[in-house]
Design goal:
The chain is an alpha+beta fold and 103 residues long. It has a single domain, classed as Winged helix-like DNA-binding domain superfamily/Winged helix DNA-binding domain (Arc Repressor Mutant, subunit A), CATH 1.10.10. The chain contains 4 helices and 3 strands, in the order H-E-H-H-E-E-H. The chain has a 3-stranded antiparallel sheet with strand order 1-3-2. Helix 1 packs across helix 2. The longest helix is centred in the C-terminal third of the chain and has 24 residues. It is globular and about 55 Å long.
């Protein structure tokens, strides 16, 4: 069985998908990514919105609503996005396991 063509996910995409396991708007996604990565991944708005467009094309995320003022779009991970996130997590677990066995 071959590996999915979307793997490996970039670190930024991985954290965006992880952040969107709970629906969020753009600024909150930026904050969650920084928090989840312990400050290792910081994004500018332009980077985020480019990634959002790409992830929507891939059907890994979808808009779910807007906030009460209709100013912010809110996004959430899709089942397909969750599946690719899990596959990448398993890929990394395997890498860690075989590395631990070798060093």
């Amino acid at each position: 069985m071959g590996r999915d063509k979307h793997l490996p996910l970039t670190e930024t995409v991985y954290y965006i998908l992880l952040a969107l396991t709970e629906p969020a708007h753009g600024y909150l996604i930026i904050q969650k990514v920084e928090e989840l990565s312990n400050g290792q991944v910081r994004m500018a708005a332009g980077t985020l919105y480019g990634a959002i467009e790409n992830l929507m094309k891939l059907k890994f995320i979808q808009p779910v609503s807007t906030d009460e003022n209709n100013r912010r779009k809110v996004y959430a991970i899709t089942d397909q996005g969750l599946a690719i996130l899990r596959l990448d997590m398993e890929r990394m677990r395997h890498m860690i396991a075989v590395t631990g066995d070798r060093i």
